[in-house]
Amino acid sequence: MSEISLILLAAGSSSRFGMGVKKQWLRIGDEPLWLFVARQFEKMHAFKEIIVVADSKEIGYMQNFADYLFVCGGKERQDSLKNAIGAATGEYVLSADVARCCVDEECVKRVIAKKEEFDCVAPSIGVADTTVFGAEYIDRSELRLIQTPQLSKKNLLLQALSGEDLFTDDSGAMKKAGFNVGFVEGSKKQTKLTRKEDLALLACLKAPSSDSFNGIGFDTHAFEEGRACVLGGVKLSENGGFKAHSDGDVLIHSVIDALLGAAGLGDIGEFFPDNDQKYKNADSKKLLSDVMALVRGVGFEVSNIDLTVIAQKPRLAEHKNEIKRSLARIMQLSPYKICVKATTSEKMGFIGRGEGVAVLSVATLKFFDWTKT
Between 105-113 and 33-44, two packed helices, what is the crossing angle to 10 degrees? Predict the structure, then answer.
């Protein structure tokens, strides 16, 4: 069995990417980028284990895709790396940034082949362009650009990362700690995906699939006197609101469940439990905004929302358009992608008796098409 543990770093916020979706969740066909990268590595070497470092909010979701070992990321890259090293059982660790997504098999082989010669092995490439530092021209033959994956002796790397200094890669930490760092020739194929314009340079990537995903949301709340009646972020009256832990916006809660269901993320109670004081009287508009950021972050965009309010009261005919536009603002959608309907229960059941309201929602999502940006 191989003594090398593969560590894939996929917990970043993609703040420089500027597309709403996180880089690691761009779909390549129907695979998220992090999985696309992992499967490239799987074909190249029989690793002892594959460890994926993920945002703590996304680990449960990632586990739906592959039977790897997932660990939580930290504040800095090296915090994430230390978390993964703590879970690794191999004598060596090969760490790779998922953003360096076009993996060159020959480069990986060159790195692994040198594991007995150095404490840390990193691929690097030369600089082809004339180079200036400040106002001074410098000899480009002396410059190297360091890439991943990088292979290190696990215990030595953990030791190198134990101080307070911050490092942008493993080799820098190992060099600072006095360990023996060696370099092999890297690959221009392994351009790092940092900004959206880098997508045009990555020949290994193919467009996302055109699959669509439907989710159903249902919620119901009883009326409670003394609370404002709010539906879809619109205050309909100062009284006749809903009994709830949050502000009771039953319409938004239904939409949230539909979105989470379509993305395969779970249900509203998992994200905003009604026994958590943090969400006491919470503004449901903020909850919906947070869910939209999550849904977009993991690679989806909304095709449309269709919902039906089932209520004997309040009467919604004059409010439907206002509710639609309120949802459109919160979700950053064009209003034509949202349909708000209303009906009664023909005076049957608790709704017919005027005791509460129910809302049924359907959300349709598709993969974010990064090829059209």
Answer: 60
